[in-house]
Amino acid sequence: MPETTPPDLRHGPLEDLQALLTGTTFVALGVLMFKQLGLLTGGTAGVAFWLHYATGWNFGLVFFAINLPFYALAWRRMGRTFTLKTFAAVALLAALTNLLPQWLGFAHLHPVATALIGGVLMGTGMLILFRHRASLGGFNVLVLYLQETRGWRAGRIQMALDCTIVLLAFAVTDWQHVLLSVLGAVALNQTLATNHRAGRYMAH
User: Fold this and answer.
1) Helix (H, G, I), strand (E, B) or coil at 75
2) pTM for this one?
3) pLDDT in tens, 2-61
4) What is the rounded CA–CA span in Å between residue 70 and residue 27?
5) Contacts for 169 with CB less than 8 Å, ≥ 6 apart
6) Contact yes or no for 81/2 (Cβ under 8 A)
7) Helical (H) or strand (E) element with 15
8) Which residues of 143-164 are buried (b: 16+ CB within 10 A; e: fewer)?
């Protein structure tokens, strides 16, 4: 993908590093909240949640492994820089989901508030990554590609995919947790739909 942003508006390496750390931390906090209440989200994270709940496998390792096949599409369609940043973001998130529970915990989480706040945290973290030409792999790669090539709203596409994945959670949890997970997915993707539109921003 050609780089059209003027050089003086592009993010520098230190800005990108700060964004990767901040964005993945926001998402990891949302994941930690969801895991504590047994909620799911969409995308490859949702698949990782599903497998984690069904088998007990480590969420971070499963999330990292699921994203491996998507790097080929990212390299071909989105370029080397995007792919390398995305790989770094996925690896950071996988590490943080294992490290954060050793550093902090939640004594009380209200289910509805957790779905909304966790969803907004994850959406904000993904938004930060998007603004620095990175993602969390998987469906993020697909929806960003469609937004940049077709002008489709990333948040709307992601919402449809995520809600479909969350509905599959009926196989591993009850309807109350599914409804809360759908609420979280809507909060996440509405954050993206409201704040990330093709052509709205100049800097990359």
Assistant:
1) helix
2) 0.82
3) 444 555 456 778 899 999 999 999 999 999 999 999 998 878 888 888 888 889 999 999
4) 19
5) 40, 46, 49, 50, 177, 178, 181
6) no
7) helix 13-37
8) bbbbbeeeeebbbebbbebbbe
